[in-house]
Structures are given as structure tokens and as C-alpha cells.
Amino acid sequence: MGNSALKAHLETAQKTGVFQLTGKGLTEFPEDLQKLTSNLRTIDLSNNKIELLPPLIGKFSFLKSLALNNNKLTALPEELCKLKKMETLHLNGNHLRQLPAAFGQLVALKTLSLSGNQLRTVPTQLSGLRHLDVVDLSKNQIQNVPDTVGELQAIELNLNQNQISQISMQISHCPRLKVLRLEENCLELSMLPQSILSDSQISLLAVEGNLFEIKKLRELEGYDKYMERFTATKKKFA
């Protein structure tokens, strides 16, 4: 892509606070964006071929939304965690295996999408994020859901299309979790904690495509309690 085209994008971004350059075959994060560290609220560089997010990302202190879907990222820099105003982070379709240790410092984060990466577990760093609403970890290589999930503040957790065969009972203690998606995993019915049905806030549990028939779920103790929450929620939105 020519410099003049990039320059035009930068000028627009300076006025709007939005820099969007998708599907242009970029192989690196445009260094010229440094000039706009105090202007930019939104950066969208999805559908490119970026392999590395440079440490300078930490300088965009007013950034609220960052999208890097469908790139070639294998890791994220610790500097990303300095973005205290960031509310939305979309990193679907990359090659990420883990999150930076300091990820819990992204205190304003509300929406996190990491679908189609190579995560093997639910990152423990997510448990400290108080404003998290939606977490999408679908299409990864997650095999179990650890105890730390009990501190997750999310309202919706999407774990569809993983390889989950074990879930910690602590998931029933999630204070705000209403929607839990576990479709197309490797769960036996005996491995689904019954407390999700009897003692949680969860009012939508999606478990199609696992190693049991859905009708067997209805025979579990606590299913009636779950249905009460499910119906109450449905009425609220009807």
C-alpha cells in the first residue's frame, strides 16, 4: 500500500479518532500511528498479515477499542496491558497460546473475543477484570475449565467448539454469569457440575453436541431450578 494512501488514512484518523485499515495485506503495525497516540480511540487492523504487535501499542492511552481479527499474532506484548481505557478487544483468528501476565490490568475491558486461537485453558488473568461482560473463547484447544473461573465477572462466556472434558464446580459461583455456551465439546454428562443447574445464576446453558443426549440433562437434579431461571429470563426479554 502506498504512503499517500496511508497518509490519507492518518489524516482522517486525526480528525475522527478512528483508524481503520482492514484487508490490505499489512505485515506490520503501521509505525506512523505513533503520531496519533493521543487522538486514537479506535484501531481496526483486521484481516491483515500482522505477526507482531509492537510495544508502542502501550502508548495509545486513550484507546477504547482494538481489533486485530484474522492476523498472524502468536503473542501479545506486556505493553498492551497499559491501556487502562480499553473496553473492547477483538483478536479472533490468530495464533495466540496465552495472554500477557499483566492482562488483568486492562481494568475497563468489557468485551474480549479470542475465538479461533490456540489457547489451552481459560486464562486466569481474566478473573481480575471487574467490568468484563462478554468473553468469547470458542474454537480454541481448551480441555478443562480451572477453579479460577469462579472469580470471572463475565455475563456471557462462550466456550463452544473446544475440547473441554472437565469443568470446575467453581463456575457456579460466577457472580454475574448468565449465559454459558459449551456446545461441541467432549463433555460426559457426569462431568457437568450439577451446581450449574441448582446453585448458579446461569439462565442459558447451551450444551448441544457433547457426549450425552440433551434429554438426559433434564433428568438431573437441579434441572427444575435451572428452568425457572431460564423461563424468568425469557419472560423478561419477551
Automatic annotation (TrEMBL):
The keyword Plastid does not apply. Keywords: Leucine-rich repeat, Repeat. InterPro entries: Leu-rich_rpt, Leu-rich_rpt_typical-subtyp, LRR_dom_sf, LRR_domain-containing. PROSITE patterns: LRR (PS51450). It comes from the Eukaryota. GO terms for cellular component: cytoplasm. Gene3D superfamilies: Ribonuclease Inhibitor. It holds the Pfam family LRR_1. This is Leucine-rich repeat-containing protein 57. It comes from Panurus biarmicus. The lineage of its organism: Eukaryota, Metazoa, Chordata, Craniata, Vertebrata. The gene is Lrrc57.
